[in-house]
Design brief:
By secondary structure, this protein is mainly beta. It has one helix and 24 strands. It folds into two domains: 140 residues, ntegrin, alpha v. Chain A, domain 3 (Immunoglobulin-like), CATH 2.60.40.1510; 297 residues, no CATH class. Strands 1, 2, 4, 5, 14 and 15 form a six-stranded antiparallel sheet that branches. Strands 3-6-7-8-13 form a five-stranded antiparallel sheet, with no helix packed on it. A five-stranded antiparallel sheet has the order 20-21-18-23-24, with helices on one face. The two termini are 28 Å apart.
């Protein structure tokens, strides 16, 4: 049994006014609405999203484009996947550019009919083109981007790098997934200890700099004379200079686009390399292109940056879900006797209900009585002062939508005949209440 001191009869109205001050503050966003999905369109045009009225944030999941394989053998890199919650204002506009896979429709600036997958994927940061030959590496995937109406970048999912071309005796290096370096090509064994070296992969772009290109493959034996591709500037991979992925070297994979693009892989080394006395010849594998960088701006929360699970041919994608501030319509009602006499034991029932639409958290209800003594309660009440009311204090961690809780307050009438007894109650939670006027209640009756 919890016991508290009573209030004079004339202060019931004051208690009611104080209860009304219990109306809670705005809580954290929690109510999600239907999502809108943006798919890749040919050429990666800018699409727009209008933030619904009342939304305070959006949950965004963005996927970048896939890098292409080289010669249908050496895999390109997967695009990035970025998930984040971004603060927004209702009615604002977001610009969406969805990146495509290498060779995707609309990315035909390099299409010469030889190898469509040498074409970089379109995007906000387009993937690099490779050299459009039967021995070229794969094109890079396009980056996917979300910006605000001022063109400030909010989020980017990088594209994957293209695969490096293999040789008859050596594997090319795989393209790097978004944010990852391309893999170097393997060496081609020649006569004796000689071998034609594999090229290194291109470096991934980062949030601070574009990726550098990989290095041309060489020889690991002085007995092997590099007779071709040994001094041409196209041998080394190309470094990216901005959001676009770097174009491929002679056989290296192109870089993926992104916040900063990835560099291309180096060219296979030692093509035509042989021993000093003639004999076997061959070349190492070319390097894979580096992936483009993914990014989320500094005010974003719940950020997750990883690799997309969308396979080659699915292209990038963006899903936007508006988030509204949570709301819970709390109300309180008091029921009690229609009259009482001095010395009688009476009870008041205080019912707190939540009409939703969301759950109310950290619910607190204060109850003050007047004209009663030996006050006790059920429901685990404590005592304290809330918004100027010194009395019973009920705490509930949560009250779900369309649910209610009832507290019973019992006491002995101490007021004399002709005076009034009564109770006042107020409730609030940490969640925004759309109708605060029903958060307080008062009952009173005369002593007979």
């Amino acid at each position: 049994m919890s016991r508290i001191r009573t209030r004079p009869a004339g202060r019931v109205a004051i208690a009611l006014a104080a209860c009304a001050g219990l109306v809670g503050a705005v809580g954290t966003p929690a109510a999600f609405a239907d999502a809108t999905t943006f798919s890749y369109q040919a050429g990666a045009p800018t699409q727009t999203y209008s933030v619904p009225s009342g939304a305070s944030a959006v949950l965004v999941t963005a996927d970048g484009g896939y890098g292409a394989a080289a010669a249908s053998e050496v895999a390109g890199g997967a695009g990035g996947e970025v998930t984040a919650t971004l603060p927004v204002s209702g009615g604002s506009i977001l610009n969406v550019t969805v990146g495509g896979d290498a060779g995707a429709a609309g990315g035909d600036s390099c299409d010469n009919g030889v190898d469509d997958t040498s074409c970089g994927g379109p995007g906000a940061g387009p993937g690099g083109d490779s050299q459009q030959t039967s021995a070229s590496g794969g094109g890079g995937g396009g980056g996917t981007e979300l910006t605000d109406a001022s063109s400030d970048i909010l989020l980017v999912a990088g594209g994957g790098g293209g695969g490096g071309s293999p040789s008859p005796c050596a594997d090319g290096g795989a393209g790097g997934a978004a944010g990852m370096n391309g893999t170097g090509g393997s060496n081609c064994p020649l006569v004796g200890t000689a071998s034609a070296g594999g090229a290194t992969g291109g470096n991934a772009g980062t949030t601070t700099a574009p990726g550098a290109g990989g290095s041309v493959g060489g020889s690991d034996s002085s007995g092997c004379v590099l007779s071709f591709y040994s001094s041409s500037p196209e041998d080394d991979g190309v470094g990216a200079t901005g959001p676009a992925g770097a174009d491929g070297s002679l056989s290296g994979g192109a870089g993926g686009g992104g916040y900063n693009g990835g560099g291309s892989g180096g060219t296979a080394g030692g093509l035509g390399c042989s021993t000093a006395s003639g004999g076997a010849s061959g070349s190492g594998g070319a390097g894979g292109g580096g992936g483009g960088a993914s990014f989320a701006e500094s005010t974003a929360t719940a950020i997750s940056i990883g690799t997309s699970s969308r396979g080659f041919g699915a292209n990038g994608q963006v899903t936007i879900t508006p988030i509204y501030p949570a709301k819970a319509d709390l109300s309180v009602k008091i029921s009690g006797p229609s009259g009482a006499s001095t010395g009688a034991k009476i009870s008041y029932k205080v019912t707190v209900a939540n009409a939703g639409p969301g759950a109310a958290t950290s619910v607190r209800t204060g109850v003050a009585t007047t004209g009663l003594g030996s006050v006790s309660t059920t429901g685990g009440a404590g005592s304290g002062t809330v918004a100027g009311i010194t009395g019973l204090l009920f705490d509930d961690s949560s009250l779900g939508a369309s649910s209610s809780v009832t507290y019973t307050v019992t006491g002995i009438v101490t007021a004399k005949r002709g005076a009034k007894i009564g109770a006042a109650a107020g409730t609030r939670s940490e969640v925004s209440d759309p109708n605060p006027l029903n958060n307080a209640a008062l009952v009173s009756e005369p002593v007979s």
